[in-house]
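The record is kept unedited without comment:

——
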Amino acid sequence: MIKGVGEIRDRRGSRKVLIIGLERENITSLTGGDPVVFECADIGLPAMQVVIMFGEDQASIRAQLAPIAGDARERPEMPPGQGPN
């Protein structure tokens, strides 16, 4: 996996960007039910973990989150208009 932070400059101005590049091995892990996890502090961002998950649909991702969701300050939410109603 490639991860890093950078800056994009274009006609709209300058803004920070988080770059995550996944390798085939990462995709195999994800589709096998194992999340890809990394520490933000490793790339100079505030201390927290990033967890990348895969599921056939949002319900399967929510099922994977269920064991750890009680420890999270906020539960992941779907953007309005997406997912099951």
The chain is about 25% helix and 30% strand. The radius of gyration is 15 Å.
